[in-house]
Each structure stands twice: as C-alpha cells, then as structure tokens.
Design a protein that fits this description.
alpha+beta; Arc Repressor Mutant, subunit A; 3 domains; 5-stranded mixed sheet; 7 strands; elongated; disordered N terminus
Length: 353
Amino acid sequence: MTTPPTPDRLPRPAGQTPISLVRAVLLAYAQRHLDPSAALRKAQITPSDLSQSHGHVTALQFERLCSAAMQELDDEAPGWFSRRLPWGSYGMLARASISAPTLGLALARWCRHHGLLTEDVALTLEASGAQAQVRIDERRALGALREFALLSLLRNLHGLACWLVDSQIVLQGARFPFAAPAHAELYARLFPGPVRFGAPQAGLRFDAHYLQLPLRRDGAALDQMLRRALPILVWPYRRDRLLSRRVRALLQQPQAAHTADTLAARLGLSARSLHRQLHAEGTSVQQLKDEVRRSQACELLLRTDWPMARVARAAGFASDKSFARAFRQWTGQTPQGWRQQSAPEQKPAPAPD
C-alpha cells in the first residue's frame, strides 16, 4: 500500500478553494451527527489542512469531498435546506431541462422545477430588453450555511448553463446579500465580472441574447456529464458563442462606418453567415447599430452640453435631422426633450474634445 501524497506535494492549481468552504461541508455532517472522516480521507484533507484558518485545498480535493458528502448524507444540497435533496435530485432537474430547444427555456424549467425540491428558496429567471437575470428569493433563514448555499446555487446554475450551450456566458454582474467574506477573491474567479456584496438578494445578470442560444448537448452527453458533474462548476469556458456581443464591441470602436461586409471580415465570416447567425440570436446588424447609437447618444446627451448636431455626428449620424428622427423612434421624444427630462436640475459638464 502506497503512502498518500502529503498536502505539500498535492498539485496546487491557480484556482484554490478556501478551507472555510471545507468547514461548511463538515458542518453539514455535524448537523446530522455523522463522522466526516471517510470523506476527508477520500479528499486527502488532513487535520493540518483544517487547522489553517486561511488555508486552501485544491479544486479536485473539494470536488472529492463534496461528492463523498452528498452520497454519505444522501443530500445534494448538504445541509442547506430544511429537508434533504436526495442523491440524483439535480440530475433529475437537468434531465427535465435537456430537451428544451433554447437556453432560456432550459433555465426557466430548471428554476421552476427547483421549487419542487425545496420551498426554502425560489429561483426566478427574468428578461427585460437586452438584460436577463436569475435571482434567488430566500423564503426561510438558511443559517450558518447561507453563504455556501447561495454561492453554490448560482455557480451550479451558471456552470450548467455554460455546459448546455458549450459557451462562456459572460456575466454582467453577480450579487450576494452578505458582507464580503475573507475569501472574496474566490468570487472573482467563480463569477468573472462585477461582484457586489451587501445586495438585497443573490442573483446573476447577463446578456439576454444568450437565452436564444440552442442547446448543444443531448441525453447521452448528459449521462456522461452526470457521472462526474462537479467539474463543470469550475470549467473555464473560453469561447463565447454569442456573436452579437462581438459585433456590438466592434460597433463601439470609434472607426469608419461599419457595414455588414466590414464587420464580417473582422470576424472571419461571410456577410451571409453573419446575418444568419445574428438572426438565430434574435437580432440583426441594423438592430445592433441602433442599440449602440442609442446608448452613445443618450450618454452624450446626459454627460455633455454639446449641441444636437455634434451629438448626432458623434453617434454616427449624417445630420441632426436624421438623428432626431431616429431618436424619436427609439424614445418617442426629441433629443432635446429627453435631455431636459432626464437631467432637469443638472447642467452637464462639457466633454473634452
């Protein structure tokens, strides 16, 4: 029998898990009056590791600990809720979602069906304009495992969503209803993008166009994934399949007028492919141009005292008349009227040339 490697010799990848989350799993054992020794041995987590108040374990160690705990406690939400979620509960939710044609419907099913597992929290998917969000409403005090529960629920949902569409889903923001913990750097790794602590409730925000992406996984892929599902929680998706985000970024660059041909060339596509893929995402080159122009125009109207002709040129319009016509279609108001209504008591400072 070989001697297990010592903690000093275990591989230490860049992404590390704070020992405080290990203690959260051990608290779930304590609540059930069960011994976690076997799970700790499987994860090769030693008493020396546990004694380090600001120590870390590897992602693989934490994965092994959670897998053992979920099976030994027969609870896939170890200690989070007032009743157990028996082994296979989240697999059942995934199977109910895998047949959805789009990510939006898959996530809506996941959130709705999660309410069948527990009434302690409610997950809700909302979309308004170009932004979508998933929020968690706490309907019962989650106690000492609150942070572990909310962190895991959002990371599980985001990881599964990325896996379903085989794409990085860029987050516009993640929020949590507690003060920043000592291991706040973990959140920056798990939720790339702005992270806010002390929010009214937990949730994620992202581009609503992701909801239109088709699922790229089937039942066979799901069966394989569920054999070792925890790694998807730290899967470093590099590719973003949402073409509209890339087009919008190009349109925001202060360059010559963009056309479908020039945009397609920058993206390594044909103009026909560009139009087809954007249509599949529920948008178009013209719609994205209008969104970018509107955003730029509104910002200039609020932040500067430029005359309308100068705002029009900066927003990409040939004349202030065409700008006024487009702005009225967007908002139902003239640019000047919108400026006065939006900032009635403040005179905007001149923007630098």
